[in-house]
Amino acid sequence: MPNFLPLATTPLETPLLRAIRDIHTRFTPLHDGEVASYIPELGKADPDHFGIAVATTDGHVYEAGDTAVPFTIQSVSKAIVYALALDMLGSEKVEAAIGVEPSGEAFNSIRLKADNRPFNAMVNAGAICCSGLLAEAAGDEAFELIRTTLSRFAGRELEVDDAVFQSERQTGDRNRAIAYLLRTYGGVRGDVDHILDTYFRQCSVLVTARDLAVMGASFANHGVNPVTGEMVASNYAVARTLAVMISSGMYDFAGEWIYRVGVPAKSGVGGGILAALPSQLGLGIFSPRLDAHGNSVRGLRTCSALSDAFDLHMLSRRDDVRTCIAADYDFRTVPSKPGRQPHEQSILEQRSGSIRVLELAGKLSFATMDYVTRRLTDPAGVPAFLILNLHRVSTITDAGLRLFTGLIRNQLPASTTTVIAGVEGNSPVAPQVKAMKEEGVRVRIFPTYDAAVDWAEDQIVYRHGGFSQIGIEADLSGQALLAGLSPQELADLSRLGTRVVFDAGTRIIDANEPPARVYFLVRGMVSVRSMHDVRLSTLIPGMAFGELALIDQPRSADVWADTEAVCLEISAEQFRAFQETHARAADRIMRNLAILLAGRVRMATARIDMLTG
Amino acid sequence: MPNFLPLATTPLETPLLRAIRDIHTRFTPLHDGEVASYIPELGKADPDHFGIAVATTDGHVYEAGDTAVPFTIQSVSKAIVYALALDMLGSEKVEAAIGVEPSGEAFNSIRLKADNRPFNAMVNAGAICCSGLLAEAAGDEAFELIRTTLSRFAGRELEVDDAVFQSERQTGDRNRAIAYLLRTYGGVRGDVDHILDTYFRQCSVLVTARDLAVMGASFANHGVNPVTGEMVASNYAVARTLAVMISSGMYDFAGEWIYRVGVPAKSGVGGGILAALPSQLGLGIFSPRLDAHGNSVRGLRTCSALSDAFDLHMLSRRDDVRTCIAADYDFRTVPSKPGRQPHEQSILEQRSGSIRVLELAGKLSFATMDYVTRRLTDPAGVPAFLILNLHRVSTITDAGLRLFTGLIRNQLPASTTTVIAGVEGNSPVAPQVKAMKEEGVRVRIFPTYDAAVDWAEDQIVYRHGGFSQIGIEADLSGQALLAGLSPQELADLSRLGTRVVFDAGTRIIDANEPPARVYFLVRGMVSVRSMHDVRLSTLIPGMAFGELALIDQPRSADVWADTEAVCLEISAEQFRAFQETHARAADRIMRNLAILLAGRVRMATARIDMLTG
Questions:
Q1: What residues does the Cyclic nucleotide-binding domain cover (chains A, B) (predicted)?
Q2: CA-CA-CA-CA dihedral for B186, B188, B193, B199, to nearest 10
Q3: How many CA atoms does the CB half-sphere of B135 hold within 13 Å?
Q4: Is A382 near chain B, with CB under 8 Å?
Q5: What is the pLDDT of residue A380?
Q6: pLDDT at residue A431 greater than cutoff 60
Q7: Which of A72, A508, B57, B437 could disulfide-pair with A270, CB 3.0 to 4.6 Å?
Q8: How far is the C-alpha of B506 from the C-alpha of A471, rounded, in Å?
């Protein structure tokens, strides 16, 4: 038992599953309410059935109780058929025919708005009008279109309960009256029987609590069914349908629903409730006993209990915008990275305010990104190089992206170069950053923070003549690795080595090869790059590389010639020979090497402190 | 010009400010609608006034146009007075007296619900009832209480426009009728004139668009005025008031409002609109021309335009729960940290699956935390030590914390030790983690990832007898720093040094002191700790510390004796003396030191790669 494995092999119960099971147990004894009886077939439902299903936006479904028992969808269908109509017929046409105001009346009210439109698509008049629009457009195909759409929302093929359909048709005089009234005002056109058949059939589709949860999750997931991955409705249709569900989905209980629960929902007299909270979850409940409004009693209680337990109310958002900036500094307060020569260090130190770094974190939304932009309103605080490190950013919303783009395009002066760091290929925000770049936003993008800082520092050093000495030949006396050696010792070492010229673009050291040589750079510029081709540092004349060969330690990075590079190359064997004859000098070099490495350890530790701090 | 400062000195214009100014410019030419005239004083308003203010939840206020022009608050007061009543009288009493359903009628309708309660507190009947409840409870102080509350929401002292108040009183017969009707049913008690005076005065309080924005931001900020920092309403009152605003705040335009804008709002016939989006913003608009519903025409257009531009609709949430897990690994895939002895390494390698790390990121909400819990349902995947690194977590919501607690308390088996890492004192989630701990949740908390891994590894090493040799005396031959030395050289070095015994709990090395000695640990255990008292590594017999003294490099960490610790102490002078007489051995030691340091650089680089990768 090496890994302390627990003995159980059944899946562990997550807190949400536990909560759902608890709620199911708690409300099972609740026997208030009556099974719908105005359609004889509905009265046959088993009043004790009770199922709760929760589907997440990543496609997991939690279930408790009778989640596989089929029942007719009834009015829950209205939400999905409305979304279908918006997508298929266009919002203009649908919105012209059906209002979006709560009616304040029972679901089967025949009353219309003052302009003779149905109040909304969640009451019978609006739903019949909606089915009528589809029947007009699709003719005999209308119902199959609806059934297919309901099936795609559920992620499986749904069928009609023919007995219920016949029962609906036989007892549907009130709906017949509504349909004829609508035709009076042009709300529906064509054959009323065909329209009503479409509507009655749509109400008679069989679903389970699990189906309703997945349907809800398809709404919550912005129109993509998270179980099948299929796009089942447009963003627009989803957003508008949820809005109507909020104001009118729970019959004449809407205000109370918003007050107490605050999750868009639609109930049906079959005992089903579908609820959908964007980016959070879909909820499906089945329990056939209804209250006076026609809503499932246990369904309402379950929604309330879940909303209370987990603050699901749509207005319950709690974010502190300030947490989106994890750090904000320039290099006056943070030391620059290692790998710079003293004269470069001196240029960078004089201009330590030229680079400002904002480390962003979490979600860049409207509110958080606005906060970020406000940190950059003082012209004196906007540097030549602004590095925005997105490494810890998990999401950028559309609105956040709009403000981000506006920041770079309009807010920052032209003298500021914006650099985005921390966006590797697998970053969750890579697509948005790429889109921004493709839109022509003037920005430099680097996969890592280090690469971004290096690039910005190089720009500063370059602008201030720091690379002018690339072309000047450096002798060995300035080499930190050779500090303390006498002129004679330096001359002897120099004689021992070989002068080698590398063309620009040559790989001088391959990290995967065994360490065999140390190089002293005499002229030109080389860069040290990680396995992932990230430039770790830039070396100029007077600096050495490959020095771990002196102690037979493996390479950790490649070295490339950025320009033509002249080097004094000394092999490990040559150095051993030098050591034989120059013990004092060799000991000195080893000590210098230890000092250089100790400095690197310090720098790396400081960097880790900053990253984890 | 060392820092490339731009020449401008006025604040840079953020994208949101730019958008607000653009919208202001766009709608300024809009002259539709009429100034309210049913109260003669209101008719005197300048119809061209137009101000837009946006207040953020961190207390910044953006303004465009006439945001400092005073006007009477009118029905906007209803929202705040309702919140006040909920807080002062208790929700039970208020909710028993006033409904929460939209009325579907004009704001001044005299119609009541079937149970003779006003439909909601946003129509005149409900607001009069609300003021009546306050008048009943506070008597003559009622209005001053209301004025003070409005002032606290606005963050400044507000005054009454006496001319408007007199005008309201003289023309208030409809409201008088409503008040008497309410008294018939016990909806208000006591002197109707006093109640109406309170109500008319409340409507006549002078505010600016800026005031409405700050009031809105107080709602958006969960009851804390973000400008003054004062708590002005409870969470409960804020949430319930916003819910009623959503369903009934825009008079009989509610459904359309939810459909098109989706931000809780309240308008007044003075031309003001207050809107509040939780955790996002407060919005205040002033433009006196009203549409047929009594809503400011330019105000509605501004709300719509802002909502469209920045997806402010309350149902417009877009999060991918999957981004909350930045990494998920055990030590089968990631090498353990440095600083372990070979026998410890071997224990750890055999049990590399005993530690699993989840690096969490962004916001731990209901949905994301549920996703995290679902990653831990497979009993075979739940290790002895589960390290949850919260370093990149920006927020934990209440619901997220509930699931987090449930995960540790109920889901994970007792054989799993949960370790929370990355929570330093200044972490945004430190309070929640502390609260969890105080509630008795069995969890270990470490400020850094490294400290957490070290601790968990120590536990594993300890459980498998890894520290049994702490008590066994190690001779110098096993020291990596002395590898390759002859027995004679070791004996000579040993003779040179001093055997020192440190009590448990002694600080052996102070990072701030100059490096003067190297220590070879002979018996016991010591730990290397950072300036912030984070344990960087644990050393056991056979390991050295303080070795940078050999190359005169500054200390970077403290070393403490965990147990009684026996060391061979060698000063820098003694080592120099050894070097004189033992050149070969000293050279060897220097080379060993370079090798040790090269290993540390490699490890640190790998760690940085992981942190930034």
A1: 481-576
A2: -160
A3: 24
A4: yes
A5: 85
A6: yes
A7: A72
A8: 55
Task: Please determine, for residue A7, whether its predicted confidence score (pLDDT) is greater than 80.
Answer: no
CB nearest to B411's CB, from A15, A552, A600? A15
Give B 189-218 residues with CB within 8 A of chain A: none
A544: which strand partners? A520
Catalytic residue among B82, B199, B371, B519: B199
b or e along B499-533 (b: 16 or more beta carbons within 10 Å of the residue's beta carbon)?
A: eeebeeeeebbebeeebebbbbbbbbbbbbbbeee
Cα B538 to Cα B553: distance, rounded to the nearest angstrom: 21
Angle at A315 between CA A399 and CA A83, to 5 degrees: 70
Which residues belong to CATH 2.60.120.10 in chain A? 470-612
CATH 3.30.70.920 fits A321-463, yes or no: no
Residue with tokens 């040993």, as numbered in its chain: B494
B313 CB neighbours in chain A (<8 A) are: 239, 243
- Chain B: give the shortest CA distance to residue A324, in Å: 7
Output Rg (C-alpha) for chain A, integer angstroms: 35
b vs e for A270-284, b when ≥16 Cβ sit within 10 Å of the residue's Cβ?
A: bbbbbbbbbbbbbbb
User: Which residue on chain B is closest to A121 by alpha carbon?
Assistant: B255
- Can you identify the CATH homologous superfamily of domain A470-612? Jelly Rolls (2.60.120.10)
Assign A553 to helix, strand or coil.
coil
Q: Do A311 and B366 touch (CB under 8 A)?
A: yes
Structure tokens, B64: 């465009």
Residue A269 known to bind ligand: yes
| Of residues A8, A58, A599, nearest to B371 (C-beta) | A58
A105's tokens: 């009346």
Question: Tokens 């060392």 map to which residue?
Answer: B2
Q: Give the CATH superfamily of B471-612.
A: Jelly Rolls (2.60.120.10)
- B54, B601, B607: best to mutate for the A interface, most A CBs within 10 A: B601
| 3-class SS of residue A244 | helix
Alpha-carbon distance B83 to nearest alpha carbon in chain A (angstroms): 13
Q: What angle do CA B391, B397, B403 make, to 5 degrees?
A: 90
Q: Are A610 and A331 in contact (CB under 8 A)?
A: no
Tell which residue, B344, B433, B329, has the closest CA to residue B383.
B329
Residue pair B259/A244 in contact by the 8 Å Cβ criterion: yes
Work out the percent of chain A whose per-residue pLDDT is above 70: 92
pLDDT of amino acid A607: 64
User: Coil, strand or helix: which one is B230?
Assistant: coil
Asked if A449 is an active-site residue, the reply is no
ipTM computed for the complex: 0.75
Burial of B498 (0-12, 13-18, 19+ CB in 10 A): exposed
Model pLDDT for residues B238-278, shown as the tens digit of each residue: 999 999 999 888 876 778 888 889 999 999 999 999 999 99
CATH architecture of B15-310: 3-Layer(aba) Sandwich (3.40)
| pLDDT score for A381 | 86
**Residues B61, B69, B75, B534: which is the catalytic one?**
B75
In degrees and rounded to multiples of 5, residue A86 shows phi and psi of -60, -45
The CATH 3.30.750.24 domain(s) of chain A lie at: 321-463
Per-residue pLDDT band for A121 (boundaries 50, 70, 90) equals very high
Adjacency order of strands within the sheet including B517-523: B498-502, B565-571, B517-523, B544-545
The DSSP secondary-structure symbol of A123 reads S
User: B393, B425 in Cβ contact below 8 A?
Assistant: no
Tell which B residues from 219 to 248 touch A, by Cβ distance under 8 Å. 222, 239-240, 242-244, 246-248
Catalytic choice (A69, A109, A123, A199): A199
